[in-house]
Amino acid sequence: MTDKISVLISEEKVEKKIQELAERITRDYEGKQVHLICVLKGSIFFTCELAKKIPLPVTLDFMSVSSYGNATESSGRVRIVKDLDESIENKDVIVIEDIIDSGRTLSYLMDMLSARKPASLKLCTLLDKPERRVTDVSVDYIGFEIPDKFVVGYGLDYGQKYRNLPYIGVVEE
Ligand code: IMP
Ligand code: MG
Q1: Do 99 and 127 meet the contact criterion of CB atoms below 8 Å apart?
Q2: Rounded distance from Cα 99 to ligand 1 centre (Å)
Q3: Tens digit of pLDDT for each residue in 7-23?
Q4: Taking a C-beta distance cutoff of 8 angstroms, is the pair 141, 25 a contact?
Q5: How far apart are CA 56 and CA 26, in angstroms?
Q6: DSSP secondary structure of 91-160
Q7: Would you call 16 helix, strand, or coil by DSSP?
Q8: Which ligand is the nearest neighbour of the Cα of 157?
Q9: Residue 72 has what pLDDT?
């Protein structure tokens, strides 16, 4: 069965926004080395595109957390499926997320990472659904604020599908 998907943010707009975010990060981290943490799997496309556009020394690490099953609602539970390979102590860390929804995942993750004593810790998300927030999360770089709709593409999935769409789309009910 195929779902009907309509375009919410075009590929061109996503690419342009990532370029803008990369320029801001490049200015903010001038003279430093940036350690990007990609939160799998959803942030993979965003992290790659962003990293390519930052002309500073960049290192990457990956982490996988799970707060959703295959449903479209948060379970409220956060589980570390794969931890980072390297220590973040004394590093200038930016956590890269695909989307912040309830904020539960990120609030848990940021607390856990800050306890590991990075030199600095910031958060960058491609998408933000502010209407859905249930816990306070401070976000340093936001690509787009979007309405309370379930979106797919550019890394985001619906039952593991549609991550490879080059744009942000909405799954029609
Ligand atoms: P939170 O803990 O509710 O903020 O959930 C964050 C995670 O839920 C994201 O990293 C996504 O994996 C997933 N998620 C939230 N909203 C959507 C959506 O609209 N489409 C696809 N995944 C979503
Ligand atoms: Mg995610």
Answers
A1: yes
A2: 6
A3: 999 999 999 999 999 99
A4: yes
A5: 7
A6: -EEEEEEEEESSSHHHHHHHHHHHTT--SEEEEEEEEE-GGG--S----SEEEEE--S--EEBTTB-BTT
A7: helix
A8: 1
A9: 57
Under the banding of pLDDT at 50, 70 and 90, the label for residue 75 is low
pTM over 0.85: yes
* CA angle at 84 for the pair 15 and 34, rounded to the nearest 5°: 50
User: CA 159: distance to chain centroid?
Assistant: 18
Which listed residue (28, 101, 136, 157) is catalytic? 101
What would the two tokens of residue 155 be? 């890394």
User: Catalytic site residue 101?
Assistant: yes
Residue 156 CA to ligand 2 centre (angstroms): 8
Q: Please state, in angstroms and rounded to a whole number, the distance separating the CA atoms of residues 76 and 90.
A: 31
Q: Residue for token digits 């030199």? A: 119
Q: Which residue owns the Cα nearest ligand 1 atom 5?
A: 101
For 19-60, the pLDDT digits (tens) are 999 999 999 999 999 999 999 999 999 999 999 999 999 999
In the block, residue with structure tokens 């926004």: 17
Going by C-alpha positions, the residue among 168, 136, 21, 44 that lies closest to residue 97 is 44
